Q: What sequence folds into this?
């Protein structure tokens, strides 16, 4: 009996660790986290991602849990822009900097688009989908 | 002229006594009618403009409302600063004018500009000016709640609004009563989007029909039998059934009524604020007074009005008027100062009696105090000034000098009368008194002129410090002038009545003989050792000056208001419900602290309030029991408990009046405000966080926080113009319809007895609970029967935007604020400035400004020092013109640094901080110190001129001995009168006066001791030539 319980616990624990690509969700509402660069910040298990956009430029800052800048090399980020109504999406090329990623997207005449990020944190080996609404004309 | 006054007084003695009696009676009546307040009116002339903007987002409020109004206001004459806050649906602009400008004129020019600006604003948006306010205007808070929750919160609010408020508003002096909490009753028509669909009705139609739900019109006149009847067409809503039975449209020819598509209910209006008392939901009513009104009498009138109403209220309803009362602070402060004045006067009498040992002389001398005070009261009444801690402080400082004028006169008259009595050919007594009074009149007048000059800097201060200290100066100078007149008129007259008998028998008291013997020994020793004495004095001065470097700098001493105000700033975007919850939990934490008596909370903004707080902000007023730990300890505990419980909530601990003063100085409720200016909100937020982390952990810096200009979640409905056009809808039409549906609008009013309630139309909760349902809102039904839903013409999406945008002088700004604990403000700011310079790099177009008390302290110190130097120059010129000698002038002025020695040392031993108040103490000291020296040197010159003495050591010893008693009496009297204030550090009402008293008492001690030695030594060493020249000049001048 004891062994069965232990086995169940081990299997459960392993199955939790194996959730390597969980669907992105906001662990903290944006309002409870202070964004160091004035943008929109979202929380992952062991890190934070902040997006700052000005006109066509996009900057993605990465931090550890305590909001200290984290090395960009720790993360792999794939970015896409999805336009409203048509739902067309385009890939955005990101350039890795020390503690951030930089990219650019010309939304042309559209008032907003959804920035879809697939973030993989090498420290936790977790992949998370994050969405940000970008309003380039604001 | 002065001789004529003395002569006339002695020739009309009864008249002088009668006038004095009249002044006593009239002054006593007047003094009881003077308004009482804690401080003089310290409100900066400010016009507040509030513009309700239909729930617009802060960005829109900023660009469409605030900015156009600001652009009209820029450049108005007298405007010093324009601050604005653009929040959700509300723009508040503070136009700050220069001190001393007339508020009604300011309001007039602002109103002219608002009329022009209105043309540039969106339709139906009207800026209005807030009432003429006063910084000390919030005088009372009243909590109204049901003890056992029998009366529902909406009824509690209705009673507060319709029973209590109208009664309180009739009390003379009450300007405004603002309520928060409970719920403002409304009749709500909650339309179901589903039923609208079912009956194929559009919002457009509903909006149009409901706009006409309640209307009366006129039918002109009907003539009948030679009489005319007024015809009235009644369509106004009177009951809930009237609303339900109103036609809203037709469906296949069948009438559709309001009740078919909507639920009609009585419910509270959408709340943007809430209140509680001792952790129980309550209506908190804040009473504001009119500027200049008497707080204490208004509070009494409010309490008696509540007692009148109480029997008519529901039995479970508690109306507690004792939540926050400014009058408690006022009474504690004024009674404290009055007690100190009384104690001071008793001590003065004791000193007089010890030195003079003559009851008659003591009483004559003391007469100056009440008469001068009462004359000051009459002057206050004429000029509309109030009795407050500062004016009473002016009188407390003046006590010593008030007596001094009379002492000098009585003492001289007495001496001459004794000499006359011993004379072989005695003169007439009135002639002796006249001569004796004339002898010393010049020095008394000169000393008074010098003191008036010394106080000039106070009248040139224009900030908060000017407003605080000018009344002190006015009270001081008025009393001093009154005492001068008394010493020239009443004192000689009273001497003529009471100093005739037993003159020969009077001798110096044993005490006086003893100190005179000591004085002689000291002078015998010191006069030949002038080098040693003078160099010792210089060394002492240098030593005391070095202590200045070990002292901190603050603007004003900390007030002790007896209450505290804790502001909780939750992250923006939080709902009122959540914010309320945090507030309630915080209240519970505070009430668990044994020293806390009560807590009242206001979360968010009350309707009518010009304080544009978001729902994320709670302000909790705390009242304390009079026993237990110190205030600092209790507040420290509260601060740490709140921080521990709510790590994401900003906590700011302060006091109500101090908070308002801070707000007036910098627009921020904290002692230190670091403002970053620049165009882009994101960069401002980024740099603010950077600056915050750069200075976090600085010793003495507490309550550090960045202004909550964060991002809040928004749902945006972006109209796609091309799509809307396909259905014949313009963007304006769509947004207007959506505003009515989602935000709602008041369409009519229901009158119940004398109470008026809004009829409010809005979509019900089901129809607007999520984006999907909002997207399916029917905007229009096409002739084909096709329903035009929102998702066909607009993109509805979630995003974020700023919760508020703050501007100052037409530029966006963000504030990093903090308070100081256990450290002086000056050194803290220096350290912060160095850290910011080193660690924070700002992009082009961005800059930092340091504001708050620090800014005011620097400006005030500069002004006081500059005007102080000008005053000293003025004093020097007056002395030169009187003595015709630069050397004598220099000798008199040397006593000023001698006085500073004691002032600095005692300040170092007590407060260890230099404030504007202590600088005022030093200013006063200049006058008092030079006065003693003038009296001493004038007497040497008098002996040489009138009593045939030559310039010699003996003459100097004689002159010093004769002046010793008046000098010591002045010092003792002034010091003892101020001694209660020296020991009143941190007591309510004594906070500002304590440092003034410390400097004067310390200074008087050193100047008196050193004056007794240094002035004779200096005069003996350097004064011979000048004295002989002066006597020669005066004698020649008299002959001419």
A:
């Amino acid at each position: 009996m004891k062994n069965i319980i232990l086995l169940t616990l081990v299997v459960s624990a392993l199955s939790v660790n194996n959730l390597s690509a969980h669907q992105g969700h906001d662990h903290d509402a944006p309002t409870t986290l202070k964004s160091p660069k004035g943008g929109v910040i979202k929380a992952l298990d062991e890190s934070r991602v902040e997006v700052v956009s000005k006109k066509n430029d996009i900057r993605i800052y990465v931090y550890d849990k305590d909001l200290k800048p984290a090395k960009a090399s720790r993360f792999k980020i794939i970015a896409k822009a999805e336009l409203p109504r048509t739902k067309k999406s385009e890939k955005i090329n990101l350039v890795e900097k020390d503690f951030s990623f930089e990219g650019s997207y010309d939304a042309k005449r559209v008032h907003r688009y959804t920035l879809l990020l697939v973030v993989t944190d090498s420290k936790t080996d977790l992949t998370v989908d994050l969405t940000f609404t970008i309003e380039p004309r604001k | 002229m002065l001789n004529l006054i003395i002569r006339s007084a002695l020739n009309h003695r009864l008249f002088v006594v009668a006038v004095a009696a009249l002044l006593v009676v009239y002054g006593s009546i007047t003094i009881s009618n003077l308004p009482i307040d804690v401080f003089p009116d310290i409100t900066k002339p400010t016009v507040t403009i509030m513009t309700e903007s239909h729930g617009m987002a802060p960005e829109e409020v900023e660009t469409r409302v605030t900015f156009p109004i600001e652009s009209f206001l820029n450049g108005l004459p007298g405007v010093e600063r324009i601050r604005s806050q653009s929040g959700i649906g509300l723009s508040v602009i503070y136009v700050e004018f220069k001190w001393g400008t007339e508020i009604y004129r300011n309001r007039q020019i602002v109103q002219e500009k608002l009329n022009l600006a209105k043309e540039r604003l969106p339709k139906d948006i009207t800026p209005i000016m807030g009432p003429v306010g006063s910084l000390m205007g919030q005088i009372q808070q009243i909590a109204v709640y049901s003890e056992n929750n029998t009366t529902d919160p909406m009824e509690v609010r209705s009673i507060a609004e319709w029973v209590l408020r109208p009664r309180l508003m009739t009390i003379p002096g009450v300007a405004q009563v603002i309520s928060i909490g409970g719920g403002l009753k409304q009749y709500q028509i909650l339309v179901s989007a589903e039923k609208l669909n079912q009956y194929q009705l559009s919002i457009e139609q509903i909006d149009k029909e409901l706009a006409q739900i309640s209307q009366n019109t006129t039918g002109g006149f009907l003539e009948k039998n030679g009489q005319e009847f007024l015809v009235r067409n009644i369509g106004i809503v009177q009951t809930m059934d009237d609303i339900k039975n109103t036609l809203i449209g037709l469906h296949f020819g069948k009438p559709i009524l309001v009740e078919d598509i909507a639920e009609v209910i009585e419910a509270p209006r959408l709340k943007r604020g809430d209140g509680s008392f001792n952790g129980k939901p309550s209506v908190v009513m804040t009473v504001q007074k009119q500027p200049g009104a008497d707080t204490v009498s208004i509070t009494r009138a409010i309490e008696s009005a509540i007692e009148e109403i109480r029997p008519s209220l529901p039995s479970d309803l508690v109306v507690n008027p004792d939540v926050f009362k400014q009058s408690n602070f006022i009474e504690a402060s004024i009674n404290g100062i009055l007690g100190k004045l009384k104690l001071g006067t008793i001590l003065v009498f004791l000193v007089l009696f010890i030195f003079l040992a003559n009851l008659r002389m003591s009483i004559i001398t003391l007469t100056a105090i009440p008469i001068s005070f009462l004359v000051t009261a009459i002057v206050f009444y004429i000029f509309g000034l109030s009795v407050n801690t500062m004016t009473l402080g002016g009188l407390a400082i003046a006590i010593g000098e008030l007596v001094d004028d009379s002492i000098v006169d009585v003492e001289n008259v007495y001496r001459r009368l004794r000499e006359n009595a011993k004379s072989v050919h005695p003169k007439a007594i009135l002639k002796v008194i006249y001569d004796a009074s004339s002898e010393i009149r010049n020095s008394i007048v000169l000393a008074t002129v010098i003191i008036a000059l010394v106080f000039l800097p106070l009248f040139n201060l224009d900030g908060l410090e000017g407003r605080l200290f000018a009344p002190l100066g006015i009270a001081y100078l008025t009393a001093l002038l009154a005492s001068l007149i008394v010493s020239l008129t009443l004192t000689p007259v009273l001497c003529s009545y009471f100093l005739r008998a037993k003159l020969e028998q009077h001798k110096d008291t044993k005490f006086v003989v003893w100190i005179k013997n000591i004085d002689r020994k000291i002078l015998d020793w010191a006069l030949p050792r002038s080098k040693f004495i003078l160099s010792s004095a210089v060394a002492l001065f240098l030593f005391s000056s070095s202590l200045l470097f070990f002292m901190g700098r603050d603007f004003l001493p900390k007030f002790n208001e007896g209450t505290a105000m804790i502001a909780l700033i939750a992250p923006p975007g939080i709902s009122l419900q959540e914010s309320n919850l945090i507030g309630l939990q915080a209240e519970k934490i505070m009430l668990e602290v044994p020293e806390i008596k009560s807590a009242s909370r206001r979360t968010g903004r009350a309707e009518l309030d010009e304080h544009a707080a978001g729902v994320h902000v709670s302000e909790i007023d705390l009242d304390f029991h009079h026993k237990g730990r110190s205030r600092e300890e209790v507040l420290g505990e509260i601060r740490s408990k709140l921080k521990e419980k709510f790590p994401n909530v900003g906590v700011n601990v302060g006091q109500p009046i101090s908070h308002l003063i801070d707000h007036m100085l910098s627009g921020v409720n904290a002692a230190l405000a670091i403002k970053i200016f620049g165009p882009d909100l994101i960069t401002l937020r980024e740099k603010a966080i950077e600056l915050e982390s750069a200075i976090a952990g600085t010793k003495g810096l507490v309550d550090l926080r960045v202004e909550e200009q964060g991002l809040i979640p928004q749902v945006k409905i972006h109209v796609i113009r091309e799509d809307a056009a396909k259905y014949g809808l313009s963007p304006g039409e769509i947004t207007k319809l959506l505003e009515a549906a989602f935000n709602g609008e008041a369409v009519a009013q229901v009158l119940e007895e004398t109470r008026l309630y809004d009829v409010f139309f809005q979509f019900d909760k089901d129809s607007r609970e999520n984006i999907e349902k909002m997207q399916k809102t029917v905007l229009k039904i096409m002739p084909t029967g096709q329903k035009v839903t929102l998702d066909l013409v607009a993109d509805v999406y979630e995003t974020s935007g700023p919760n508020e945008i703050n501007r100052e002088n037409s530029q966006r700004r963000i504030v990093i604020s903090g308070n100081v604990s256990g450290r002086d403000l000056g050194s803290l700011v220096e350290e912060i400035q160095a850290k910011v310079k080193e660690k924070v790099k700002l992009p082009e177009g961005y800059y930092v400004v340091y504001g708050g008390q620090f800014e005011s302290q620097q400006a005030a110190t500069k002004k006081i020092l500059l005007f102080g130097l000008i005053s000293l120059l003025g004093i020097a010129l007056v002395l030169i013109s009187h003595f015709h000698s630069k050397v004598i002038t220099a000798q008199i002025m040397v006593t000023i640094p001698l006085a500073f020695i004691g002032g600095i040392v005692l300040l170092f031993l007590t407060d260890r901080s230099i404030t504007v108040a202590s600088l005022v103490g030093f200013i006063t000291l200049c006058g008092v110190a030079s006065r003693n020296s003038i009296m001493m040197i004038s007497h040497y010159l008098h002996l040489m001129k009138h009593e045939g003495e030559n310039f010699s050591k003996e003459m100097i010893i004689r002159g010093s001995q004769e002046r010793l008693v008046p000098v010591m009496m002045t010092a003792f009297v002034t010091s003892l009168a101020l001694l209660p204030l020296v020991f009143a550090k941190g007591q309510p009402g004594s906070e500002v006066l304590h440092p003034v008293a410390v400097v004067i008492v310390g200074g008087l001690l050193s100047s008196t001791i050193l004056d007794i030695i240094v002035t004779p030594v200096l005069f003996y060493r350097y004064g011979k030539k000048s004295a002989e020249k002066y006597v020669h000049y005066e004698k020649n001048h008299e002959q001419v």
